[in-house]
Amino acid sequence: MPIELVLGLGLALLLNREFRGKYFAQAAILFPWAIPTVINARIWAWMFNGQYGVINDLLIRVGLLQQPFPFLARPDTALYSMLFITIWKTSSFMALILLAGLQSIPDHLYEAARMDGASRVRQFWDITLPLLKPTLLVALIFRTLPAFQAFGLPFGLTGGGPASATTTLVLFDHQLTFTRLNFGEGAATATVITLVALAIAMVYVGTLYEPEVR
Fold this sequence. Notes:
Elements: H1 2-15, H2 22-28, H3 31-34, H4 37-47, H5 54-61, H6 75-103, H7 107-115, H8 120-131, H9 133-148, H10 152-157, H11 169-179, H12 183-208
Helix pairs in contact: 1-6, 6-9, 9-12, 11-12
């Protein structure tokens, strides 16, 4: 999530500038998010395949690998591969939310800051970031809750393996409830996941919520 937030903010800042094809670029970055999660998982499972995957082929062609590497078959690389896919898919969603917040900041504030000699870095820290806090709050909550609900990607990509390396909380709860048929522990696990997500959301609200910000 921190990487998604940083990348999303960087994309939002770029898309907030005026350039040719701006609106096409704004629509294009939504493409990764628009792909259904299970379909996205199957596409990347094919691309990361250790025998015929396109990623292995490209890395071998450019000389970074000598032979195919089983990205999804090794516990030490499967999780990082899944994290890469998650960041690729959701950074664009963060960017669109933050872009909406950036476009709500009045231009006259930046004009006044430029007249006072403020650099772009100073404008970002003194104007953009403080006024973007309500939008950051929404973006973080919108990503925290789905992060605790992550099921489709690990299920479709690796099934939680190898050796439970990509087993998320919800996937573990699903296995506990419907595979092991342990309904009591499954219900308790789901309750704990909900409470932890709620606690983190409350931390976000307590840290970023400023009712006086307009």
